[in-house]
Amino acid sequence: MKIDRYDRAILSALQTDARLTNQELADRIGLSPSPCLRRVRRLEESGLVAGYRAILDARALGLSLMAFIQIRMDRHTPERFENFERHVSACPEVLECHLITGQDADYLLKVIVQDMDGFQALLLERITRIEGVSGVHSSFVMKSPLAKTALPL
């Protein structure tokens, strides 16, 4: 889908504040409300706008330990990968799962838990028990000076 400067402005504004009313959005990007709403709907229908979410404060919810876990698999077969991905998708503590290359690992997980006890339970009772997991390496986040959700437009 080809997008123009108005579409980019809409996408940028929605990434910053998805709670804008159509009138506020139209005013911000310099369109009247009707064409603005048509553009937003077209962007949603095309899949460029995949959804709207609230960004929660993890620490306020008692989730203070974030870690990245590199996972090594014993075999590189579609079945092994599908099984692993299905299991980690069912873990609410797993925020992201990436199949990677260029490392000594096959997957990189971003996880968040309350504390080290929660991490130990996640790792030992769930992740390492997934068939095919042959190695793990964990790195703990000390500080996150930059955490974006907005894509560069």
UniProtKB/TrEMBL annotation:
<dbReference type="Pfam" id="PF01037">
    <property type="entry name" value="AsnC_trans_reg"/>
</dbReference>
<keyword id="KW-0805">Transcription regulation</keyword>
<dbReference type="InterPro" id="IPR019887">
    <property type="entry name" value="Tscrpt_reg_AsnC/Lrp_C"/>
</dbReference>
<dbReference type="InterPro" id="IPR011008">
    <property type="entry name" value="Dimeric_a/b-barrel"/>
</dbReference>
<keyword id="KW-0804">Transcription</keyword>
<dbReference type="InterPro" id="IPR011991">
    <property type="entry name" value="ArsR-like_HTH"/>
</dbReference>
<dbReference type="InterPro" id="IPR019888">
    <property type="entry name" value="Tscrpt_reg_AsnC-like"/>
</dbReference>
<dbReference type="InterPro" id="IPR036390">
    <property type="entry name" value="WH_DNA-bd_sf"/>
</dbReference>
<protein>
    <submittedName>
        <fullName>Lrp/AsnC family transcriptional regulator</fullName>
    </submittedName>
</protein>
<dbReference type="InterPro" id="IPR019885">
    <property type="entry name" value="Tscrpt_reg_HTH_AsnC-type_CS"/>
</dbReference>
<feature type="domain" description="HTH asnC-type">
    <location>
        <begin position="3"/>
        <end position="64"/>
    </location>
</feature>
<dbReference type="Pfam" id="PF13412">
    <property type="entry name" value="HTH_24"/>
</dbReference>
<dbReference type="InterPro" id="IPR000485">
    <property type="entry name" value="AsnC-type_HTH_dom"/>
</dbReference>
<keyword id="KW-0238">DNA-binding</keyword>
<dbReference type="InterPro" id="IPR036388">
    <property type="entry name" value="WH-like_DNA-bd_sf"/>
</dbReference>
